[in-house]
Specification:
Shape: elongated
Number of helices: 9
Radius of gyration: 32 Å
Length: 688
Amino acid sequence: MNKKIKNVTLSAMALGAVGPLLGNAVIYAEDSATITNDTASSSSTSTTNSTAADTDPVATLKSMVTVNGNPLTKDKAIMAGDDVTWDVIATPGNTGLMTYFQDKLPNGVKLSPNSTLAIQAFNINNDGTQGDEITSEGTTKINGQTITWTPKDPVKYFYVGSTGTQNRILFHISTVAQQNIDPDYILENLGTLRVTNPKDPDNPVDVTSKARVHTVRDLAPTLQKAVSDDDGATWTDFAQLPSKDSLYEYKLTADIPVGMMKSSFSIDDPMVNVQSFDKDSVKIYRVLPKTAKTDDTSSDASSSAAASDTSSAADSTSTSGASSAATSDTSSVAMSDATSSAATTDASTPATLTGVAKTNDKEQDVTKYFTITTGDDGDLHAEMNYSYLKSVRDSTTPLEYEVVVNGVTFKQASADDLKKYLEGGLPYIPNTASADVDKTTVKSNQTRVTAPEPADPKAGAISKAVSVDQGKTWIENGQLTDKSQAYDYKIDVVAPVGANVKTLGVKDTFLAGQTVDPTQLKMYMKTDTTPDGQLGDEITDQGTFTVTKDKDGNSVVAWAGSQAFSDKINAATDSGVKFTLVANNVSLANSTDDQLKAFIKDNTTTVPNTATLVQDGKDTLKSNTVTISLPPLADPKPAKQVAQDVLANTGEAIRQNPIMAALGALAVLGGAGTGIYKYKSRKKNMGE
């Protein structure tokens, strides 16, 4: 049953690893509105957990949940498409025989895969570890959102004391959050264990356990911006142009959740009054869902798409209700071919919306369905026509649109126009766009472009970039996979003109204990014949590199040019000499926790770097700042470790703390990942 969240605070009791097998597991208490356990009822009696050490266990049920293979943590919300796994431990006990286990999935999730293969049952050994799979020892049926597993031999699970084995069962149920899942809701999964005493068959005892997850509270559209200086081959948030006259492209990607666009959709991109573009160069595309059919020879793309989405119907053990559960999440929207309507399966598309040019099998040109205008300052405004909006607003899959602005340039901007955008003597043109979906406004990330011409030739210029792909792409903000990943820095310098320098060099302090190999430091000089994007001729021997350590253990790299190098700089009269310092294979591998600690914010480690131009022994210009970031840190509060010997005597452990046994059963599962692997194995063995 879905319940609207009202001031719900999720608080977790993290319970931990059993020996080397069990990963962190999170069990939630009733007062945190996440999981409730062990309620028993019948028409004549009520049974609860016994805590007396000399009493054999009664029927119990324990639940936990994982999302995308990870234990659910405090305030973690699920989103459409997330894998949600429900693990329920059933102990029939010794008060009766197990009649069945039943699980009622909440609306908003569906089985994954869409059949009884998504439900597995395992024995639990007396030491608390997972035993053999026993799914086939019961009959599994699916009726809508309700799953029932009935044991063929209930006696197997009757508790017979410390000499008995495998009297508990783990039910592992894999689901996926549906695409049309509602935001700001609690999804409650209800497990029921029914135990019946043969001497009193009219009064079965039901033990229930609830597990809850919530969906994101602020489901909203998103807008991402990127820039390209190579005709769309590479899109990043930063572009170093070959020259001020260069052309570049912007791309805005708007993702709109299901049901979020009802009355209006528009995108605004202020071009910072120094950039210009041709309005006719703006193109807008609808990105097709991955399951869309775009075969030009198909007369009914939408039907084939729908058929493929529902082809994995529930297997022969499922009841007729399973198919309705399977199709509750409508198939992905399939776009028509060039002669069909713009949105075949979204809704009843107006007959006038025809003739959309198909770009490729991933997107379609829908520019004609937008009104595109520009303001006096060149700002871009693109608004979706209402007739087209009506055809797509009832889509059962998220909508995605791309706005591409071609042929952008700032070559006509004057020096005065660019003054406020200067860093290290170079112009850095920022851009942030926004999207309006009904009454919701969201902003994009910021992109920046720069060109190598200094604003003041007499002062020169310095800029910096980082690469995490061995120099293929140079960006301002790099994301590492881990501390051991090496990366490269590049410092571009335009020497001052007419300054009659005595010495000119570059200095850079590599913070957070980054390791710099002196043999990986090189200097290059561009000439008139150096192709765009190339470093030029190596001139490392025309100066001297030094690498020293400061008091904090940071590496300080400096390069000072020789007299012969200074002579070349002073000889240039029209434009400054361009040279580049490259530091390859820099690494954080040897950084200590203390060195990194100062750069942790919002659980993420981000290390900045800024280079300095040194003229005649004085710092003259500081470059732009680049960063490298490590993946988010693990939860700083480690889960409580549970000793293996706690579960050594299963009978005693169950009597004193049944939840320990429940955790032990998860030892080999390791979350949803193992379950998925086993599903694939079962499919292979069954020839599916």
